Amino acid sequence: MKKGIIAGLALLGVVALAATGCSGAADASNKGGSGSNGKVITVGFAQTGSESGWRSANTESMKDAFSAKNGFKLIFNAADNKPENQIAAVRSFINQGVDAIVIAPVVTTGWDDVLKEAKDADIPVILEDRTIDGSSDLYKAWIGDDFKKEGETAGAWAKTNLGDKATNMVVLEGTTGSAPAIDRSTGFSSAISGTQIKTLDSQTGNFTRADGKTVMEGFLQKYGKDINLLFAQNDDMGLGALDAIKAAGLTPGKDIQIVTIDGTHDGLQALADGQFNYVVECNPLLGPTVAKTVKDVLAGKAVEKKQTATDQAFDQEQAKQALPTRKY
Ligand code: GZL
C-alpha cells in the first residue's frame, strides 16, 4: 500500500522499534510493494466495462494474471463504459493507497488531472489496451494492440476484394473518442484511398451487439440493397448487424460482405460459417505482460514505454483451421 499506509506502518515501525529499543528504519524497501520481497502487491484496475466478447477475454486475462497466487491483491472496477465512472475509480484507488494502478481508458481525453494526482501520490500508472492523449510522462507504460495497423489490414482486404468496382460501404464505429475507434478509422481510410469504395454512412455502435444491430437496421432502412460492404470495428457490432441483415431478407457474407476486427470465437465462427468475409485479430490476452510490467516498475526496473501485441488476420478457410485451438 502507499504513502498514507506506509506512513502509518513507518510510525508503527518506529513505535515498535522504540518500544523494543531496536534501531533501523521502518521497512522502506517495501515502499511501492515490489513483490520481489514477497510482499503482496495491491493493484487497482479500472476496466472499461463488459461491452463485448473481447472485453470479457481481456478481463479474464487480467484477473488471471493479477491473482493472489501471482502475488497480487486486485481491486477491480468496471466503469460501464462511462469515462466519469472510470476517473472516479482511479481516484478511489489513489485514496486507498494502492501500489499501482492499471487503466484501460474508455476514451483518450480527460486524463491529465487524475493521472497527475496519481503521480503526486507516487502511484505508478500502467495503461493496457487503449491509449490516452495525455502526456506520456503521466504513465509508466502502455501494453496493447496496434489499432491503426488493424484498420489498415481490414482496409487492405477491402481494397483487394472490392476496391476495383463501385462499392457502397457502411461503417459501425467503436466507442466515440476511444483510441481503437479513432485509429481503426484512420488505418482503414488510408488503405482504401483511391479505390471505388464509397462510404454511405458511418455511425457508432459502441462496440456492442445491441447497438450494432440497431444502427445496422437504420442503415438498411435508409440504403437497403445499395449496401455492398459493412466494416464493423469489432466482431460484436458485426454479429449484431447479422440479425438486421437477415431480417431485411439479405444474406450476410454475400449480399453484404462484412469485415470486422477482434478475432473472438464468435467472430471467427461467423467467418467460418460464411456470414463474415474477413476478421482481423486484436489480441486481448494482455494480462501476463501487464502484470510483469507492474512488478518491474515497482522493483525500479526500466520498462518499455510501449509493448505491442502481435495480431493476425483470417479469411473463411483460415478461421475453420484456427477455431479448434483458439484461446478466446
Ligand atoms: C480493442 C478494444 C476494443 C475491442 C472491442 O483493443 O479496446 O474494445 O475491439 C472492445 O471489442 O469493446
Automatic annotation (TrEMBL):
Entry keyword Signal: yes
Signal peptide per UniProt: 1-18
Alphabetic keyword roster: Signal
Residue ranges annotated for the Periplasmic binding protein domain, each copy included: 44-301
Residues covered by region (Disordered): 309-328
InterPro entries: Peripla_BP_I, SBP_2_dom
Gene3D superfamilies, A to Z: 3.40.50.2300
Keyword Signal: yes
Predominant localisation class: other
Cell location: Cell envelope
Pfam families: Peripla_BP_4
Similarity-based family: Belongs to the bacterial solute-binding protein 2 family.
UniProt name for this protein: ABC transporter substrate-binding protein
